[in-house]
């Protein structure tokens, strides 16, 4: 009887993990192809990103209100001093990372975007070393060389290579290294109380919106104000379809954050890292099949080399975690290339997390 119960528990956990991974894939891969699809007809990626941020803030605020009503405990609200000093740098870096990533879809293919974004772990490692969040080891140097070499091979003589788009997404990956390092430092400050990703999203979105607004005003403001799709619309039906499409992207972005949190809270950050590796392969295969992206044998070898570097990084995280006798909090971020909105949740004690995780789980049903 006991054996049967253990088998059922194992099967249930495996099915739950598979379901959470598939949910994460749907949102993560979905938002990548959504961004590429929308930018083909709507050439205002910065405005699109800002509207997504507004939707995410709205859903985050609603989630916090529901959690507060159900738990009868007030959610954390930072003072203006902490908000501007501690959160603003992270918010600005995150806004630039997301904004430049979406901007690059005007010029490059999904496959080139996916491959280049995978290099974010390279910059994360570099900035982790600069801020002394990681120790310099020979294995980390090997990880950097594998990822850098793979990126070079993937872009070398690519038939669909575009320098402008590549520069945008590479810049986003570079800023992403700063972003995740700052986010790690932000979440490790226990006194701020931002360990829960919903609270983090709620506090980040307004400053991200304001940080992206000057860039939007310079590059898109005038064109958008004269566009017949938005401000000078003549067809109400077209306007509603455009706004509906933009709102859908915000839902996908928020769902991506929720699915990541669910996957980590119910399994581990290692599961998310491994799932992220296979997700990149799925994205490239779908891009080649659905969008006709041309990927040569050399490009595939470069991608395999890059994935080898990421896999080695994941393995090093696992060994380091086991060597310390427990999970390593918040180190080695970025093995999933398009974490558009959330950092995976830091480990909190079980009592503090029970009600919040229950709410998140219910919100996905």
UniProtKB/TrEMBL annotation:
Disordered: annotated segments: 344-365
Main location: membrane
Subcellular location: Membrane
InterPro entries: Sugar_P_trans_dom, TPT_transporter
Cellular component GO terms held in the UniProt record: membrane
Compositional bias (Acidic residues): 348-358
Keyword Hydrolase: no
One Pfam family from the record: TPT
Coiled coil: none
Topological relation to the membrane, as annotated: Multi-pass membrane protein
UniProt entry keywords in alphabetical sequence: Membrane, Transmembrane, Transmembrane helix
Transmembrane segment boundaries: 12-34, 46-67, 112-131, 138-156, 168-187, 207-226, 238-258, 297-316
Protein name from the UniProt record: Solute carrier family 35 member C2 isoform X2
């Amino acid at each position: 009887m006991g054996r049967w119960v253990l088998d059922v528990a194992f099967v249930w956990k495996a099915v739950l993990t598979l379901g959470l991974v598939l949910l994460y894939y749907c949102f993560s891969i979905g938002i990548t192809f959504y961004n590429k699809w929308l930018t083909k007809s709507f050439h205002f990626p910065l405005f699109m990103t800002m509207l997504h941020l507004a939707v995410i803030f709205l859903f985050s605020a609603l989630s916090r209100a529901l959690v507060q009503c159900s738990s009868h405990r007030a959610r954390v609200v930072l003072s203006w001093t902490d908000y501007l000093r501690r959160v603003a740098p992270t918010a600005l870096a995150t806004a630039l990372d997301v904004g430049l990533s979406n901007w690059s879809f005007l010029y490059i293919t999904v496959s080139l975007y996916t491959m280049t974004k995978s290099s974010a772990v390279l910059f994360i490692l570099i900035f982790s070393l600069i801020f002394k969040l990681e120790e310099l080891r020979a294995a980390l140097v090997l990880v950097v060389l594998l990822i850098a070499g793979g990126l070079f091979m993937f872009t070398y003589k690519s038939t669909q290579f575009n320098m402008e788009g590549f520069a945008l997404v590479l810049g986003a990956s570079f800023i992403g290294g700063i972003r995740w390092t700052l986010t790690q430092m932000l979440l490790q400050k226990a006194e701020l109380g931002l360990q829960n990703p919903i609270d983090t999203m709620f506090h980040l979105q307004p400053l991200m919106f304001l940080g992206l607004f000057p860039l939007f005003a310079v590059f898109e403001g005038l064109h958008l104000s004269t566009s017949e799709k938005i401000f000078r619309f003549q067809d109400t039906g077209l306007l509603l379809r455009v706004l509906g499409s933009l709102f859908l992207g915000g839902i996908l972005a928020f769902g991506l954050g929720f699915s990541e949190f669910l996957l980590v809270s119910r399994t581990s950050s290692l599961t998310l890292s491994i799932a992220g590796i296979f997700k990149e392969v799925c994205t490239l295969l779908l891009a080649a099949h659905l969008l006709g992206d041309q990927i040569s044998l050399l490009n595939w070898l470069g991608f395999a080399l890059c994935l080898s570097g990421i896999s080695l990084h994941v393995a090093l995280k696992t060994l380091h975690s086991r060597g310390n006798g427990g999970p390593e909090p918040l180190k080695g971020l970025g093995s999933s290339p398009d974490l558009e909105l959330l950092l995976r949740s830091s480990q909190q004690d079980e009592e503090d997390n029970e009600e919040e995780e229950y709410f998140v789980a219910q919100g996905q049903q």
